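Hi support team,

I'm filing this because I wasn't sure whether my run with NAP finished correctly. The job status page said complete, but I'd like someone to confirm that the output block is well-formed before I use it downstream. Pasting the exact inputs I used:
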Amino acid sequence: MPLMTLRELGRTGVRISPIGLGAAQFSGGGSGTFWPALPQSQVDTIVKTALDSGITWFDTAEGYGKGRSERSLSAALSSAGQQPGDVTVSTKWTPLGRTARSIEGTIGDRIANLTPFPVDLHQIHVPYGSWSSIRTQARAMAHLVELGKIRSVGVSNFSARQMEAAHAELAQHGSPLAANQVQINLLHRKIETNGVLETARRLGITLIAYVPLRSGMLTGKLHADPTLVDKLPRQRRMLTGISHKSLHRTTPLIDELRTIAEAHRATVGQVALAWLVTYYGDTVVATSGASKPHHGEEAAGAMKITLSDEETRRLADLSTEVTR
Ligand SMILES: NC(=O)c1ccc[n+]([C@@H]2O[C@H](COP(=O)([O-])OP(=O)(O)OC[C@H]3O[C@@H](n4cnc5c(N)ncnc54)[C@H](OP(=O)(O)O)[C@@H]3O)[C@@H](O)[C@H]2O)c1
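And here is everything the job wrote out:
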């Protein structure tokens, strides 16, 4: 079965698979992090499996283990025989407690951690916490493009208004905003009502959906074995709304995902991902997280599924019902 066609990242001319791999899981563990440490050999296998299955881009951040995820990702890409230019890599700058000057001050670390892979997309991780305005931050990012240190600029967790401000500043410098990375999944569809989807479509900005499986909830594994909920780190449960109550409330959606999955000889999580990259057309791509090799392979397999209009609408209707 052929994979879905590649999609353009904003108006950069860079083409990426509709589903990419998120590297937050490669943060190296430690206190305060969301994920347990993974041995590098396991990261190597996860990345190799994702590449072999058709994933062409990888998303990391300065904030994921203070650069550990970036280093682990580049080591895994090299170990899989990838060369600069074979894959697309995005990372993020952490604005918290810093001025825009630190964008230029820290780009050397980003480049060193990811070497030999270039920074294809550099994102402002959150719209708050910096001493500088969004326009000043955008200007500093545009300067990095001019210097040839990064290829394009993105933001994350930005509202429609904040996206417009960043886009306007960047466009003046010839590097229009390429992407906004926000939470989008069948249990979180705020982009449809908060103006983000409309703004992205109007300005030609790609929306990168993070937590596309609602941190594993949309794979159905927690519904099948609710005792797993209590084993998840508290921080992960709180930030993603995973609880016994939310499992109960979302059961009709998971049941429908399972029915559709059986018809496509796919898994529940694959149908949830396929919905995400189908329902919003080319505007949305997803960065799926993996802590085991088969996670990346399954995520990539979602790009082989063609959902009918009726299936897509049925899932949208049910998702509205269970989140009402
Ligand atoms: N920009 C931002 O502010 C922001 C915020 C959050 C995330 N992100 C990005 O988005 C990426 C994805 O987010 P995420 O990893 O939190 O969410 P996700 O993709 O919704 O969930 C990933 C988790 O789901 C489980 N999973 C995945 N595939 C599975 C499968 N086939 N079967 C069973 N379980 C499966 C695994 O949980 P277990 O590990 O427990 O098995 C995996 O770690 C991150 O890696 C990061 O790059 C960005």
